[in-house]
Amino acid sequence: MAGMLKSAGFQVTGSDQQIYPPMSDFLATQSIVVQSGYSPDNLEPRPDLVVVGNVIRRENPEALALAERAIPYVSFPQALSHFFIRDKVSLVVAGTHGKTTTSSLLASLLREIGAEPSFMIGGLVQAFGRNFNVTDGRYFVAEGDEYDTAFFDKGPKFLHYRSRIAILTSIEFDHADIYADIEAIKVSFAKLVASMPPDGFLVACWDDPIVREVCREAKCTVVSYGSSDDCDWQVTGLSVSPLFTSFQVNRNGVSFGNYENVLPGRHNALNALAVIAVLDILGFARQDVALGLRKFQGVRRRQEVRGVARGVTVIDDFAHHPTAVRETLSALAAAYAGHRLVAVFEPRTNSSRRKVFQEAYASAFDAAAEVLVREPAPLTNIPVEEQFSSRQLVDNLASRGLRAGYFSTTEEVLSYLDGSVRNGDVVAIMSNGGFDNIHQRLLDVLGGTSAASK
Question: What does the alpha-carbon distance between residue 282 and residue 203 come to, in Å, rounded to a whole number?
């Protein structure tokens, strides 16, 4: 949002508790000054408008000063809708998993076929080198998050985005800090379905039974995609390698074409299938879409190869939910068949640091040959007995016959990897945070080069 407002001609500053790459590096390139920590002093000189992120709580000192000084403010989704979406055809990607990858695919393919979309996505898109774009084009691609909007608006972000076409990838329990259970999650997605205009389209993953359930009340056209024969769009013939995934697509039971995607795994083939369906609805030629998909360069921190050192491939991935961990490791195991896969996991989200997923994580790492689990920073606002235990996860993994180790610091993880990895290994590092820059530090320890310099 800061980058978009800057590109629209506004003077932009900001505050955050801490920032880390890649976003900190990006903001620096845009000459956007970010104050470290929150303070009333950050509101001097007095801004015309303040955009309040959903991490900010009512008692935040800067938020309190904002109210005391009667400075106008909006939430991030309100700002995005008002300044950038309102005059566009809004294409929203929602779901528990795959939002960033799928929205990045959609934006990249639209650009490749000449549509020049605007977008705002939660990850850096390799084709653009940033996570936003502001153009005069017809389409706006938005990653539709189900997390709450702001301390003054507890509804999900995606309700602000004026969806004309929405992709719904999956619905699972997540965000245990704001949702009580799966029923509460379903209510939020049901609101998204209800908000769709009658002449809109909902492109929904039919492999997910909860998605099917939520879509029953849709007033717009529902276009299904998935693996089964009853889908409008079906993916078949999946073949995975380290370089690309190939698959066939059927539409209404009839062959539609063959496709290749740089991202490995069945889940990424489904993400691509959803985008293919949307672009068909929009009237783009299938051959142009297939060519654009082959050219897709990926997304930072989504199965991103950061480099190879001492014959060891180091991969960075955002996976933190048990299902995302399972799908990511399964995809990498298939793509790098014959190589030893080492998973390094940092539980960091509000949900992953709670006991709610303790048992589910135990079966999420089966595709790995070895699992290293770092001790997370504890959640101070919940009882100890409700918190996730890294030691318990390691014990559970060992009981399943997996080689697993517990580490209290990132330095311990790096030291162990330096002494244990060997030529041909693949190290998948999974965290939704910076993880103390472990990826580059591992490459440095092993004496290798980054992916960009290969």
Answer: 12
